[in-house]
Every structure is written in structure tokens, then in C-alpha cells.
Please model this.
Amino acid sequence: MKLADVESHMQKAVESTQRSFNTIRTGRANASLLDRVTVEYYGTPTALKSLANISTPDSTTITIQPYDRGSLNTIEKAISLSDVGLTPNNDGSVIRLNIPPLTSDRRKELVKIAAKYAEEGKVSIRNIRRDGVDSTRKQEKNGDITEDESRDLQDKIQKLTDKYIARVEELLAEKEKDITTV
Model:
């Protein structure tokens, strides 16, 4: 495994963590809250964003306008059954989700969920580090690289690990600030 591969994998882990953070609601309406919602569409689980236009006309409302009107009730049911925690209002052509203000208890729960996502991201980065170090040691053992080159690569991998874990921590701090800001 090359150093560039290790860095690329770590970058993807950070991006994945960012996407997970985007699914946590703050006090404002955000279309990415619905990223994890899948709808049973003609017997196939399909992402909601590929079945409907999702928009936020104001800071407390998300509107969902299906491309196929026949899927309106199915989308409404999928949102109700999802872990989004919002009740859909169907007016026959558009589904509206009203975002209520968060209670302090709910904010604390969301901060814990964000911390869990951050920890998952850090574990993923550490696993990538382990794989990179193992690969480097294997190359050294096979005689492909010298012992000094191996140590040098391992140090660089550790520095990348520290850099990307710090990035996850920054993202977590931003998300916590978003959640706790009233």
C-alpha cells in the first residue's frame, strides 16, 4: 500500500464522517437530513433524493415533491418509519416536514450521536493506519524496502493519521457548535 493510497483512504473516511454528521439535524431545515431515507419503489429500495425534489423554502420546513405523484404515499410512509423523527404532512402533491425547535435534552442526545460518528471515523482512520503499517512491514520483510525506508514510511503514515484524526475532531467541534447553538 502506497502512502498516497493511505492518504486517499483516510480522506474518504473523513468525508464519510462528514456525510454522517450531515444527517444529524440541528435547529435548521437541511435537505441532507433525508439522505439515509430509502423508499420501497416498485419493490426496490431507492434513495428518496432520486425519487423527489427536496428543498428548504425556509429555515423550519423541508418540502418533498415526488417526480411520480403515485409514489407520494410510499414516500410519506418511508419518512414516518425512518429514524428522522419528523412527521410528514401530505397535501396531495407535496410532502412538508416541519422542523420543531430542539429541546435541550434532544440537543444532548444529538451531540452524543455526533460523538459516536466521530469515533467511528477515527476507528476507520486507525484501521487504515494499521493496514498501511502492516503493508510497509511486509515490504521490508520481503526486502523490497530497507529498514530505514520502512521506519520513514511508518512515521509518515502516523503523521497522516494524526492529521486526519485532528480533522475529524474539528468537524465534530463544528457539529457540536451547530447543535448546541439555539
